[in-house]
Amino acid sequence: MGIERYSISIHFARMLMNAGRRLQLDEAVLLNEAGLNRRMLDNAHLRITPDQFSRLMRAVWRLADDEFLGMGAQRCRQGVFAIMAKQVVHSRNLHSVYYKLSHFYNVVNDSLHLSLEVVGDDAIFSMKLKDPAQDPDFLLRGFLLLLWHRFPSWLIGQRISLKHVAFDHPAPKHLTEYRLMFPCPAKFDQPVTCLVFDAAALTAPLVQTPEALRIHLKRAPFDWFTRPAYYPVYTRRVLDYLERSENLAEATIQHAALELHLTDRTLRRKLAAEGSQFQRLKDGVRRDMAIHYLSQTSMSISLVSQVLGFSEPSAFTRAFRQWTGELPRTYRDVARDRK
Fold first, then answer.
1. What is the C-alpha separation between 86 and 94, in angstroms, rounded?
2. Computed from CA positions of residues 40, 42, 45, 48, in that sequence, does the dihedral angle turn out positive or negative?
3. Which UniProt keywords apply (predicted)?
C-alpha cells in the first residue's frame, strides 16, 4: 500500500469549502475539481484521498489567487511559495532554510510573522498571525505549520524529529487528526504557534537540487499531504505488516505477532498500551485502500472488493458503508462524473 492511499478527514475539506464560500468562489467548480459532491461533504465521518484534498486546495488557490486561502490579513498571491522555495533551495543547511524562509515572508506579506530562536538545546520556529480572526477554523495555522515542517524536512532528505508542536488556539474538534499530521505531542492554548525540535538538527545540510524542486513544486500540495501517518512503534509495525499483506482477509494478529517475533498475547498488550487494536487497524487499512481504489475509475467495485479480500461485493458494500456512512458507488459515480 503506497503512501498516497492514506486518507484525510472530510473535516478539512469542509473547512476549505467554508473558506471558498467566504471568498465567494464557485462551489460547484471546487467540488467538481476535487471529485467530491455535496452529499459526501455533508457526511462528517467520511474520509477522502490526499489527491482529492490536494485538488480542492489547488482549486481554491487558483480561483482566489491566494495561497493563504483568504485566511490572512493580506492576500498571498499564487506563486509566492515557489519564489521563496527557489531561494531557500540554495541554502547551506537547515538553519539557513528557516532563516531565509522567515525573512522572505516577513518582508513580502504582513499576514504573519515568522521567527527562529534557539533556546538551550531547543530550536523554536514560531508563527504569529496578524489577524487570527481571519482563520476561524484554525485551518491556515495547521496547514502552514505542517508545511514549515514537511518542506524543510524534504530539503534535508530526512524528517525533522519534533519534540512538540504548539498552537495559540483551543484544541479543535478534530484533535485525533493531529496525530496523523505531526509525529509528536500537540499542545493547545499556548502563547504562540510553533515547532520545537532539537537545535542540533539545524546543522543538517540540504540534499535536494533546483531540478528536484521543480518537480516537487509541480506536485504541490500533494506531496505535503501524503507522508505516512505517524504512530507509536507497535501500531506502526502492525500497519507495515498489514500494508505488505497480499491477502488482507487472511491477515491475523497471530500472523502479525509471528512476523514481529512476539506472542499474540504480547502484541495485543503492546497495542492496547498504545491505544490501538488489531481489528481497528486492519479495518482502517482496508478503508483507506478502498477510498483510494474507488477514486480510480479503472477499477470496478467488484474488483476492489476482491483485491481487499472480501468474499463478495455485497460484504464489501456493507463494510464500506459501516466505515464511511456511504455506498461504494457514491465514490465511483463522482469519479466518473469528474472524468
1. 15
2. positive
3. DNA-binding, Transcription, Transcription regulation
